Request: fold
Amino acid sequence: MRDVLVSENIVGEEMEALKRSFDVVFEPQLWEEQDALLRRVGEFRALVVRNQTKVDRELLAAGKKLQVIGRAGVGLDNVDVNAASERGVVVAWTPEQNSISVAELVIGMMLGLSRMIPTADRSTRSGGWERQKFTGTELFGKTLGIVGLGRIGFLVAMRARAFGMRIIAHDAFVSPDSFMISECGATLVSLDELLAQADVISVHVPKTPQTVLMFNDDRFARMKPDALFVNTSRGEVVDEDALIRALKDKRIGGAALDVRGIEPPEKSPLAEMENVILTPHIAAFTVEGQRRVVSSICRDVAAVLRGEGAKYYVNFPRPRSSAETTRGTL
Ligand code: MLT
Reply:
């Protein structure tokens, strides 16, 4: 039996420490070959992934010796947590370790769009000096609409407050009396109210059946004609064709997308549009964010393999026996 299979590019000091203590097989491209992954996973006690490895029911069934899935990140759309729980497999994750990095990219995108920084940069590099064309707008005094007021949405709100923005938020699971609401000074509103009032909309929802394609023609039509739309959550929550129509028809002012429905994306008209910023799912990718993510996930995987509990777990801290899972102790 082997210890740890790493099927994506997860590197850092703590990964080196994990390699010194356990038998770690590092195959950063393995996520691209599901069949090979299915053949290999059965030998290992732990599988460590980012967001590209499909940890579905079939893979979990093939991973007969698995005790823990280490998800180096926060989105769980690539991990079937129910199937893992049924098999008594711990799902460890990093729910807050990259949140600051994501929040900072959102602020960068808001400024990038409102001041047209990427377009002005391209124009100047190619010999232009178009000062009037690049007259932007301030964030000060504008309304920021946050869809999904979890950890990242909260951190974005706190930073936007420093810019003098008014914060409104829509989140079906947050109460108006919550600490987060009073701390970041947000007003909770319905989604329709948010779309109608926000000058900048930032999306922070997980991918679920309820959120897939939630930003469609109808929702873009409800936004202000100069609204700036920022998505650093999951690409699948946006109907990209609807977004392209909204941008072409000038029904919204601009968009910044770090995530796409298909990653890497196919060729898209979005790449030709001046009022669009596109980045390759890098919101969590900072030196500090990745250091926290990698050290946390490696420590938790090691803890489970040593028989101690994971600190950041989605279902339970230690593997469960089939008797425990069938008793319904999840
Ligand atoms: C996350 O879910 O943590 C980020 O989107 C980055 C990733 O998926 O690895």
User: Anything to note?
Assistant: Residues 2-97+288-326 form a domain with the Rossmann fold fold (CATH 3.40.50.720). The mean pLDDT is 97. The pocket of D-malate is lined by residues 50-51, 73-75, 98, 284 (CB under 6 Å).
